[in-house]
Design a protein that fits this description.
Layout lengths: L6 E5 L7 H12 L13 E5 L2 E5 L9 H4 L18 E4 L9 H4 L1 H13 L9 H11 L8 E5 L14 H16 L3 E6 L8 E5 L2 H11 L3 E2 L2 E2 L1 E4 L12 H20 L9
Antiparallel strand pairs: 1-3, 1-4, 2-3, 5-7, 5-10, 6-7, 8-9
Length: about 270
């Protein structure tokens, strides 16, 4: 079983990568890294150049571990060229070398002492308090799983006779989110939305958080996407306008005529 504070091993990071750099990169992708009980620094330890151990605060961080494994954009934010793919895996269970206590013995001792005395020592940030602080700092973030993506399409530019457009778009969104963000429960495309809206419900908050970081501001088919959490109020369902309905019917009638309906545009209708 995975411990309450899972340890992840990463390798093939740049040999000159610092603890702060590794922490910033890993935390952006997978979530909150546990802080040292005494120094309150991220619990990241460089084992040898290019290899490090990371102690995450929440077990849910492991759901996005695949986004670390194979990542080539370790220094993308600094404008660097793509690097060799980083390898990431959960530390072997039962291997004492990679236990939290072995990696950070002074932090483990401080936490154990605080738990034994049941006192919140000044300057000691134990795991229980870290979890409470992380959740109270932005509590809603850890419960939100609904994401809204805008500008995915222009309903006026969609061919009314292309019956596969919206189903294919839904499939594409699902595949992209699964590959880049994490497990999802559902995808809803609001077909007549003038803002080209789709809603995605993730199984975990980490997936929703990752989706917003990846999609917001990204260009798709020449349009700049906007991505944010669902506000719980806005109704994005839009009824088809009379103009759009007329266009669709006319286009569909023309398509029937071109498909061999005869010069009368479909004289076999009852």
């Amino acid at each position: 079983t995975v411990s309450s504070s899972p340890v992840v091993l990463v390798s093939d990071v740049p040999d000159d990568a610092t603890v702060d750099e590794i922490a910033q990169w890993a935390e952006k992708v997978c979530g909150v890294i546990k802080r040292h009980a005494l120094t309150q620094r991220p619990m990241v330890k460089v084992l040898v150049p290019g290899t490090a151990a990371i102690v995450f605060l929440f077990e849910q961080s492991l759901y996005n571990l695949h986004l670390l494994d194979g990542d080539t954009a370790f220094r993308a934010v600094a404008g660097g060229a793509p690097l060799r793919p980083v390898r990431a895996e959960v530390a072997p269970v039962g291997d004492a070398r990679y236990s939290e206590a072995a990696l950070f013995p002074d932090a483990a001792a401080a936490e154990a002492d605080a738990q034994r005395t049941k006192k919140k020592q000044r300057g000691v940030l134990d795991e229980q308090r870290q979890r409470a602080n992380a959740l109270s700092w932005e509590e809603e973030q850890y419960t939100k799983v609904h994401v809204i993506i805008k500008n995915l399409f222009d309903p006026r530019a969609v061919d009314p006779t292309d019956l596969d457009f919206y189903p294919q778009l839904k499939k594409d969104i699902k595949q992209e989110c699964l590959a880049q963000c994490g497990k999802i429960e559902s995808v809803k495309v609001f077909e007549h939305s003038p803002d080209g809206v789709a809603a995605v419900k993730f199984k975990e908050w980490l997936g929703a958080d990752r989706c917003i970081k990846l999609m917001d501001g990204r260009f798709f088919d020449g349009r700049r996407l906007a991505c944010h959490y669902y506000d719980g109020v806005t109704n994005y369902a839009v009824k088809e306008s009379d103009e759009m309905k007329k266009r669709r019917q006319e286009a569909f009638g023309a398509w029937l005529g071109d498909d061999g309906g005869g010069g009368d545009g479909g004289g076999n209708r009852d």
